[in-house]
Amino acid sequence: MGVALWLCPKRNTPTYDKLITVMSSLNTLFPGSPPKFEPHITITTNISLDLADQSKTKDDVDRILSASAVAMNSLPKNHESLVKLGNVNSQRKFFKKLYFEVEKDPNLVSFARIIRELFVIVPQDIEKENIKQNPQLYTKDNNGNTIRRKPSKKKSKTTEVKEFDTSFIRQAAAYKAAEWSVQEFDPHISLVYSDLWPLHSALWRNINTRISDIDWDIEWEFGVLKLVLCEGDVNDWVVLGSVDIH
C-alpha cells in the first residue's frame, strides 16, 4: 500500500468514540490479537512520496496535505454528511475482514479522484516517461527494481537531462483517475483486521449484537486527513502528517 491518505473522524467526537468502542469490542471476538488501528476511510494508496530524504519528505507531506485540504474544502456543501455508513460486510482479505460499507457519495468520489490523479497517477506516469527519456539517471537495485541513481560525490561532467512535455500525461491521468474512481474506489471503514475465514454463523450473531448495541445515528464531520506509511506490521505503521478539515 505504501503511503495512503486517510480520512478520519476527529478524536473525542461521537463518531470517533463509537467506532473505537465497537472496534475494541469486535477485536475480542477474533482469535489471536488483531492489530489496533484508527477508524478511517482510505482515500487512496500508493501516493508518490520521497521517503529517502527526510527533509524532502516533510516538504512533500506538507504540500500534499495542504492541497488535499483545499480540495476537500472546495467540495460543494450540498449534502448533510460526506460519510454515510452502510451495512457491515466481510471478505476473505485481511484488511477487509470486517468493515462498514460507506456510501459512494458523489463528493467523496470526486475528492478521491482528484487525489488519485494528482498524487498517484501523474507522478507515477511522469516518472515512467522520465525513465524512457533519461535512462542514464536510473539504475537497478538488488531486487531488479528501477531506482534513481544517487548523485555522485566525485566531480564529473554534468549529465544532460532531456526535457519533455507532460501535458499529454496530465490529460491522460484525468481519464485514468475518473475510471479508477468508478471501478476501483471502494470506500469503507475497516473494523477488524484478521486472517480468520470464513466467519461462522455464531460469530456473526455476536458481531451483529455488538454493533446493534450502539446508536449509529451519527454525523461524520469532515474530520482529519492523515498521510500514513503503511508498510510492515500494522502496529508499525507511521502517521507522517495530518491536517484538520473544518
Would you kindly provide a written description of the structure presented here, covering whatever features stand out?
The chain has helices spanning 14-27, 54-73, 106-133, 167-183, 201-212, and strands at residues 2-8, 41-44, 85-89, 98-102, 138-140, 146-148, 188-192, 224-230, 238-244. With 246 residues, the protein is of the alpha+beta class. The chain has a domain at 3-105 and 188-245: Cyclic Phosphodiesterase, Chain: A (Alpha-Beta Complex). Strands 2-1-8-9 form a four-stranded antiparallel β-sheet, covered by helices on one side. Strand 8 and strand 9 (238-244) form a beta hairpin. Helix 2 (54-73) runs antiparallel to helix 3 (106-133) and helix 3 (106-133) crosses helix 4 (167-183). The relative contact order is 0.24.
CATH architecture grouping of the domain at 3-105 and 188-245: Alpha-Beta Complex
Percent helix range: 25-40%
Uncertain runs are none
CATH H-level superfamily of the domain at 3-105 and 188-245: Cyclic phosphodiesterase
Q: Please give the count of helices.
A: 5
What separation lies between the terminal Cα atoms? 28 Å
Rg over C-alpha atoms, rounded to the nearest angstrom:
21 Å
**CATH topological fold name of the domain at 3-105 and 188-245:** Cyclic Phosphodiesterase, Chain: A
InterPro entries: Cyclic-nucl_3Pdiesterase (IPR012386), Cyclic_Pdiesterase (IPR009097)
Subcellular location: Golgi apparatus
Binding site for substrate: 42, 190, 193
Main location: Golgi
